[in-house]
Amino acid sequence: MQIWVDADACPGVIKEIIFRAAERLKIPTILVANQMLRTPPSRYIRAIQVSSGFDVADRHIVEQLAPGDLVITADIPLASAVIEAGAHALNPRGELYTTANIQERLTMRNFMEELRSAGVETGGPSTFSQADRQAFGNTLDRFLAKHAKPAA
User: Fold this and answer.
1) What pLDDT, in 10s, does the model give residues 53-82?
2) What distance in Å separates the CA atoms of residue 84 and residue 66, rounded to the nearest whole number?
3) pTM reported for the whole predicted model
């Protein structure tokens, strides 16, 4: 199993949690972004810079992941593609996307997008909080305890 991070919009505090988990459990972790990323020196953590463009990082992740991998993303269409590929998706606020909830999330995302395109102000997501960090860390720990087999 590898951890993939849709890193362009991933909060720094979440990356730090991921880095600690990757080191502790020796799990290969790849951050994908269309900009240069700094990662700590580690044999388990690396960054890949893809070209700029709409969904280029998302496509790279989907093309490279394997069934059973974990992808950290807030991008619901990417999470849906990850689940379709037999992998797992977790958002930075600690919600694990599943076959049971992804369609509802896609429907709501598309509805909100339609409202915005019609000129309705929908507001953005709430401010990222300490509770969000804790929820992410707890969900990641539970997921990795269940699914991770450390690299040798």
Assistant:
1) 888 999 999 999 999 999 999 999 999 999
2) 11
3) 0.86
